[in-house]
C-alpha cells in the first residue's frame, strides 16, 4: 500500500511572508543529498602481457602516423580510397548508427533537464452564477480571473536523477562506440569485397591464358588425330578440359558480379548504377605494427561499448535502490486573482504558496527489492558480456597474427610451386608433340599448373584480407582513440 497523493506542508497564504524555518529545512535537505548505490568501477578482464603469435612483430609506437580514419591507404589503391570515402556519406548502416548516437545524446539532455526546476505560467477566466430565476429566489452571476507563475523542483537527495544522467551519458558513449564499430565494419567489409573482386579478376586473367593454351592443345591433338598419330581419346580429353575451364570462367563471372553488387550496396548505390572495370591487381600487403594487449582495450570500439554498458547497468542499481527512500518535491507559486480584469494585478489580490511534499511507498510486496535484484543481475550479465568481448578480441588478434605469419610463408612456397608446375606443363606438351608421352600426362601437367596458379592468387588475396582483419581486430588503427 502506498501513501495518498502528498499534500504540501505549507498551505496557500495571501500576504504573510514565507516562514524562514521552511527555507532552512529545504536547504538542509538539498545540501545533505547523497547518492545511493555502488560507485562504478571498471570490471577486470583477462589481459595477457604479450601476444602469443606476435613473434617478430614490431610494436606500435606513438610516432605511427596511421590512425583509424584512413588505414586502407596502406594498400596503395586509389580506387579503394575513393570507395572507402563514400562509407560515411552513403552507407545506410552507418547512417542508422549516426541517428542512434544522436538519439542517445538527446536522451542525455533530457535526463539532465530533470535536475532543474520546471517553471510554468497559468492564467484563466471563469463566469459562474446561481439561482433558478423565480420570484422569491435570489440569482446572480460573477466573473473570476486568475494569473500565476509557479515552479516545482525535485531535489536529487538520493542521487536518482544524477545516476539517470550518468546512465544516459554512458549509454551515449556506448552508442558512439557502436557507431565506430559500424563504420569500421563497413570499411573492412568493403575492403575485403574489393580485394576479392580483384582476386577474381586475376583468376579470370589466369583462366583466359589457360583457355588459350587449352585451345592450342586441342588444335595439336586434332592435327595429330587427323594425321593418324593420336587417338580420338586425346581429342576428347582436350575438349573436356577446355569446356570445364570455360565453365569455371563463367562461374568467376557470376562471382565477380555478386561482389560488385555488394560493393555498390556498401557505398549506398543501386547495383544497376555501379560498375568496376577490371584493372591490374596490385598485391600490396602492409607491415602492421602490433601494440601491447592492454592498448587493445582502449582501441577496440566493441570493447568500449561493452564497458560503457556495464556503467549503464551499474547506475541502474542506484536508481532502483533510490526507491527505498521518499521522493521529495518543492512547489512554489505566485499570482493574482480578482473578479475584474482591471483589479487583477492589484497588490491586495496577490496569492502565493510554498510547499514541500514527500511520498514514500510503505508496502508493495517486495517489488522494489525485486527491481534491485534485477538491476544487479543485469549488471552481472553486462560484466560477463564485457569480459567475453575482451577474450574474443584477443582471440581475433591472435588468429590474424598466426594467419598472417603462415600466409607469408605459404605465398613463397606457392610461388615456387607455380613456377615449377608451369615448367612441367611446357615440358610435357613438348614431349607429347615428340610422341614420347600420352596426352593424359599432358592433361595431368596442365591441371597441376592451373591449380598451382590459382592457389598462388588465392594466397595473395588471403594475405590482403587477413591484413584487413588484423587491422579490424586492432580496432581500426595503431593509435589510441580519443
What's the name of the CATH homologous superfamily of the domain at 45-117 and 182-325 and 380-473?
Outer membrane efflux proteins (OEP)
- Give the biggest sheet: 4 strands, antiparallel
Number of strands: 4
Order of helices and strands: HHHHEEHHHHEEHH
Q: pLDDT below 50 for ≥5 consecutive residues: which ranges?
A: 1-32, 60-67
**CATH class category of the domain at 45-117 and 182-325 and 380-473:** Mainly Alpha
Report what the structure shows.
This protein has helices at residues 20-31, 78-85, 87-90, 92-113, 160-226, 232-266, 293-299, 301-321, 367-433, 439-473, and strands spanning 118-130, 140-153, 327-338, 350-359. It has 482 residues and is α+β, with helices and mostly antiparallel strands. The chain has a domain at 45-117 and 182-325 and 380-473: Up-down Bundle (Outer membrane efflux proteins (OEP)), CATH 1.20.1600.10. The chain is elongated and about 130 Å long. The two termini are 50 Å apart. The model is unreliable at 1-32 and 60-67 (pLDDT under 50).
SSE diagram, text form:
Layout (H helix, E strand, L loop, with lengths): L19 H12 L46 H8 L1 H4 L1 H22 L4 E13 L9 E14 L6 H67 L5 H35 L26 H7 L1 H21 L5 E12 L11 E10 L7 H67 L5 H35 L9
Antiparallel strand pairs: 1-2, 2-3, 3-4
Helix pairs in contact: 4-5, 5-6, 5-8, 5-10, 8-9, 9-10
Main location: membrane
Keywords: Lipoprotein, Membrane, Palmitate, Transmembrane, Transmembrane beta strand
Protein name: Efflux transporter outer membrane subunit
